[in-house]
Design brief:
The complex is a heterodimer. Chain A is of the alpha+beta class. In chain A, 70% of the residues lie in helices and 8% in strands. By secondary structure, chain B is an alpha/beta fold. Chain B is globular, with a radius of gyration of 18 Å. The chains are: A alpha+beta, B alpha/beta.
Chain lengths: 295, 231
């Protein structure tokens, strides 16, 4: 049986307008919670790119000159082999480092264009038995021929990872609480809508309207609220990201200098936000329909 | 057309709404169901509309067995049944035309179908000149005629009427009864629950009397009661 589009649109918008204040409350709660969830996702992605060189417990980075000879590189690796403080290490050659560089700089295509693979420094990624040895071990290589730079600010990285994971946990917890309250709000909006249309519903049942025909306008009403809330959140997430990038670049937050969120990450986050909005809205109204609309 | 076979129905323990109730109604009959309040009349009608299921026994309406009918089939079944009530059940924010059209709209009929059917039906019930009025601008009798138009617009095989004249003065009652009789003459089976002694006695149709959930009397060309029904 065809459900006429005109009927569904008329019913849904009519319901939304009748309960506009409650609908607004539900929509705003959804947008705030989803904006938080989206921002926290972007934060996580940004931090994970910013710290990708330090993945796997790496505590010390030894960058070689791009022009370093094989013999110079060999010398460093044999010295690393001989040091008792070192647990393990691996070598990132120019090809791998170039791939990593392109990922790190994905938002600066001009920079990527202007740098070729031969300009990229290869590096040793070193894991120490005791992280506190990083400065002393690092200083051994600082002056070595063929070594460009030694980086051992693992401590700062650790602190940042720790802080961001706590911040993220708090944000996610807040977002979840808000999402739950948003679906309860939607449930209530739909319950009121069902109650205010109980005569129509009774007549519809009497003359043989199918269950889905009766339910769909109410379900759509919840879905539209979720969707509108999500769209507001999408705009907010873009704004939050811009603000964060502004802060990082203008205040020279050192450990976050590589902080970056690729446009791909942003797109995926926004899609997630929209999907969550629709799911929360539909779930809230579906529950109300099941619970309060006996058909 | 309607067959109720050894049906029991109770709402609470020890309180039977219908007890071992069996009856058969043929196509085109006009039947009154009489009895005191709480005698089971409304329960019988609710079973025939499949708003309730019997605790035991079978209910056959228009060739379908309702006790075992799955829920999703019920709407399609109800399209073959018209129903009117004491309180009319019109939608107050819709005009007469829209009230009748609503019944077609919600089962997915086309606009063209609606625009041809509704005026015909309003003509039949004599309200074509009031199609833009709202229910609260009409008399009770007119409202009930709108309800009849809505119930009959799908040309149902059966029309169930639950005390349709309960809220009407005698004059309006008679105009409604005239309409039901005309609908009956088109071949539609009419089953009407009522308290109205005058109507039952003067129409001389089949009368089924319920008393505490049991069928006490079933007679052709009957009257309301033999004097003992006062409660």
């Amino acid at each position: 049986m065809a459900i006429s589009l005109e009927y569904v649109v008329k019913e849904t918008t009519g319901n939304l307008w009748r309960n506009r204040l409650m609908s607004l409350a539900a929509v705003l709660t959804i947008s705030v919670s989803l904006a938080l969830a989206g921002a926290s996702l972007l934060l996580k992605q940004g931090v994970s790119t910013a710290t990708s060189q330090w993945k796997g417990g790496v505590q010390l980075l030894i960058f070689m000159q791009p022009s370093a000879t094989t013999a110079q590189t060999k010398a460093v690796s044999s010295q690393l082999n001989s040091l008792p403080e070192i647990k393990s290490y691996f070598y990132m050659d120019q090809a791998k480092s170039y791939v990593e560089f392109k990922q790190l700089m994905a938002n600066s295509p001009d920079l990527v264009q202007s740098v070729t693979q031969s300009q990229i420094p290869p590096s040793f990624r070193v894991v120490l038995k005791n992280p506190n040895d990083a400065p002393s071990v690092g200083s051994l290589f600082q002056q070595q021929v063929g070594v460009k730079d030694v980086n051992f600010n693992r401590g700062a990285i650790n602190t940042m990872l720790h802080v961001t994971s706590i911040v993220q946990l708090v944000i996610v917890a807040l977002a979840v609480i808000l999402l739950i309250s948003a679906s309860v709000l939607i449930l209530n909006v739909i319950r009121v809508a069902i109650f205010s249309r109980r005569r129509e519903v009774a007549v519809m049942k009497l003359v043989g309207a199918t269950n889905w025909f009766i339910r769909i306008p109410f379900m759509l009403e919840g879905m539209v609220q979720g969707l509108v809330g999500a769209l507001v959140a999408v705009v907010a997430v873009v704004g939050i990201q811009a603000l964060f990038e502004y802060v990082v670049s203008h205040f020279q937050v050192a450990v976050l200098s590589n902080f970056l969120v690729s446009s791909h990450d942003v797109l995926m986050t926004e899609l997630f936000v929209v999907a969550m909005g629709i799911i929360v809205g539909t779930a809230g109204s579906a529950f109300a329909v099941r619970r309060y609309l006996e058909v | 057309m309607i067959k109720v076979d050894r049906v029991n129905k109770r709402y609470k323990e020890d309180q039977y709404a219908l007890v071992d109730c069996s009856l058969e109604i043929d196509r085109g009959e006009f039947v009154f169901v009489v009895g005191a309040s709480g005698s089971g009349k409304s329960t019988l009608l609710r079973l025939l509309l499949r708003e309730e299921r019997p605790d035991s026994g079978q209910v056959w309406v228009a060739g379908k067995e309702l006790a075992s009918m799955p829920g999703w089939k019920v709407p399609f079944f109800r399209r073959n049944i018209g129903a009117i009530f004491q309180d009319f059940r019109l939608l107050p924010n819709k005009s007469v035309f829209d009230n009748v059209a609503f019944a077609l709209e919600v089962i997915g009929k086309s606009k063209r179908h609606i625009l041809t059917q509704v005026p015909q039906m309003l003509e039949l019930v004599g309200l074509h000149d009031k199609q833009d009025r709202f229910p609260d601008e009409l008399s009770g009798g007119e409202q009930q005629r709108v309800a009849i138009a809505r119930a009959f617009i799908n040309r149902p095989l059966i029309l169930l009427a639950d005390e349709p004249t309960g809220n009407l003065d005698p004059e309006n009652s008679w105009s409604v009864m005239g309409l039901l009789e005309r609908i009956n003459r088109t071949g539609t089976t009419v089953l009407m629950a009522t308290h109205d002694v005058g109507i039952v006695d003067s129409m001389r149709r089949r009368v089924i009397e319920l008393d505490h959930g049991e069928i006490k009397r079933d007679q052709n060309r009957g009257v309301y009661g033999l004097g003992q029904q006062s409660s």
